[in-house]
Structure formats: C-alpha cells, structure tokens
Amino acid sequence: MNIQTAIITGASSGIGAATARRLVSDGFGVVLAARRMDRLTELAAELGPHARAVELDVTDAESVARLAGQMDSCDVLVNNAGGAKGLSPVSEADAEQWRWMYETNVIGTMQVTKALLPALRASAARHIVVVSSLAGHEAYPGGAGYTAAKHAQSVVAQTLRMELLGQPIRVTEICPGLVKTEFSLVRFDGDAGAAEQPYEGMQPLEADDIADCISWAVSRPSNVNIDRIDVKPRAQVTATMVHREPH
Ligand code: NAP
Q1: How far apart are CA 163 and CA 137, in angstroms?
Q2: What is the architecture of the domain spanning 5-231?
Q3: pLDDT cut 90: percent of the chain above it
Q4: How much is the pLDDT for 2?
Q5: φ, ψ at 175 (rounded to 5°)
Q6: Distance 106 CA to ligand 1 centre (A)
Q7: What pTM was computed for the model?
Q8: Which of 183, 199, 214, 232 to mutate to test the pocket of ligand 1 (most atoms within 8 A of CB)?
Q9: Residue extents of the structural domains in the chain
C-alpha cells in the first residue's frame, strides 16, 4: 500500500519539526523542507526511512520550483515556514523587517502552494494546511508588521478555500497563540532574555500541541473540512490579555 506524503515547510524547528514527528507516527511519509539542512538531515535520520530532507527557501521562486520538481504527488502540504522580526511601533518600523515578514509568511505560502498544486491534484487525499496565527485575526501594539503579514496569510487561506471549491482539496488554517519554540528568539534577533519575556509567569503551548491539531485536522474523513482551529494556552485569551503568576 502506498503511504501518504506530507510536505512540511519550516520543518527544521518548532511547530514544523513537531508536526513532522507526529505525521510520521501517524503513518505519513514526510518531506522536511527549510533552509537549515543540518537540522533537517538530523531530523530525517531520527525519523527513519519515511522522512526526507529538502533544502527550501520559501521566498526564493527557484528554490520552490526545485522542491516542486521533485514531487510527483503530495497528499498534505503544511505551510508552516514563517515568523516575526521585531516588536517596534509603526512610528519606528523597520521596512526590511516588514519585508522579511511579508515575504516569508505571505509570498512564501503563495509560492509553495502554487508550485505544489499540481502534485496535490495528482494525489487522492489533498489537504493544504496554513499555519497562520492568532496574529492573523488580532492586532496588538508593536505587532503591526507581523499581524499585517499574518492577516494577509489568513486571507490567502480563506481565498484558496473559495477558489478550490468543487475540487477535492481541503484547506485548514491553524491559528496558535503563544507557543514556546524558536519563534521569539528569531523575533528578538537571538536575544535570549527578551525571547523569554512573552512566556514569563505562564505556561505556553508546546509545538506538540499544534502538531496534535494538524494531525487531527488532516485525519478527518475526506468530506469534512476543518476551516480554522484557534488554539491558545489556557492563560491567554487575546494577543495581549495573558494571565501571569507572580514570581
Ligand atoms: P520557529 O521555531 O522559529 O520555526 C520557524 C521555521 O520557519 C523554521 O523551521 C525556519 O527554518 C522556517 N523558515 C523561516 N524562514 C524560512 C524561509 N525563508 N524558507 C523556509 N523556511 C523558513 O517558530 P515556530 O513557532 O515553529 O513557527 C512556525 C509557524 O508558526 C510560523 O509561521 C509562525 O509565524 C507560526 N506561529 C508561531 C507562534 C508561536 O508563538 N511560536 C504562534 C502563532 C503562529 P530555517 O530557518 O531552517 O529556514
């Protein structure tokens, strides 16, 4: 029996790596895609013969085309690569950081999805997952560069669902709140102290919690489309309302 194949972008850390581990344990073959090949190679070795590492920069059309050229068929595409840079108010916005966020989260999702649609159409299962964010539906001070990009990415997911209506391709958007990954380290440019602050005095989600949501969404019967999963730590109700225990 042929096993189903899932391509996971941003599989070199955090939510993407956890999703790869989970989907392999669910019986998928996985293609691990990101820029850091050393990480991907290590994860592929851990996951065994059903995992393959492929170098991918989602912002680079040629890199995306190389990935698509290797895929005859793909059952599940998890558009997870993304992230934030900085937490400046609009008055102090850094255009380069904003461009990075738009390119990675939005253009990346578009390029990868567009390039892999033929491979998805060649499969029997067909599911596109987009990991956007709570930031795709809310604004918060200092977050405009990231929230604008995540709102845009969310709209891409919603539009895809409309454009693919009548075709057997499902589209699910996953909207996490605070998850402890390398996200914050990337956002604060490697400053470990600043990166810890969002999680102080509260228990964030783990990457595995999001992998669990993705695993559940893609394992529903093929006529069932889970449109969107909003998932937050119990201690968080909005992007800015977080209950923190005193030290
Ligand atoms: P992470 O640990 O920093 O992982 C981000 C992943 O994206 C890495 O594997 C990174 O791999 C990949 N990536 C970044 N730029 C890329 C590019 N140009 N091409 C290919 N891959 C690229 O953070 P995470 O929390 O797991 O983030 C995964 C997704 O969840 C992101 O879309 C993020 O916005 C979203 N999210 C996170 C949270 C949170 O609180 N953590 C909440 C809501 C949504 P390389 O650097 O190796 O390329």
Answers
A1: 21
A2: 3-Layer(aba) Sandwich (3.40)
A3: 97
A4: 80
A5: -120, 85
A6: 13
A7: 0.98
A8: 183
A9: 5-231
Which of ligand 1's atoms lies nearest the C-alpha of 56? 20
Does pLDDT of 206 surpass 70? yes
Q: Separation of 245 CA from ligand 1 center, angstroms?
A: 28
Pocket probe mutation, ligand 1, options 12, 63, 77, max atoms within 8 Å of Cβ? 12
What residues pair up with 236 in beta bridges, in sequence order?
Answer: 242
Nearest CA to ligand 1 atom 17: 57
CA distances, 117 to each of 81, 87, 127, 220 (Å): 17, 34, 10, 21
Question: What does the DSSP assignment read for 33-93?
Answer: EES-HHHHHHHHHHH-TTEEEEE--TT-HHHHHHHHHT-S--SEEEE----------GGG-
- pLDDT greater than 70 at residue 194: yes
For residue 59, the ligand 1 atom closest to its alpha carbon is 18
Confidence of residue 138 (pLDDT cuts 50, 70, 90): very high
**Residue 1: predicted pLDDT:** 60
Distance CA 185, CA 193 (A): 9
Mean local confidence (pLDDT), 168-192: 98
Which pLDDT belongs to residue 124? Answer: 85
Gyration radius (Cα) of the chain, Å: 17
Residues classed as catalytic: 146
| 109 Cβ closer than 6 Å to some ligand 1 atom | no
Question: pLDDT grade, residue 105 (50/70/90)?
Answer: very high
Q: Which atom of ligand 1 is nearest to the CA of 180?
A: 41
Mean pLDDT, all residues of the chain: 97
CB of 149 sitting under 6 A from ligand 1:
no
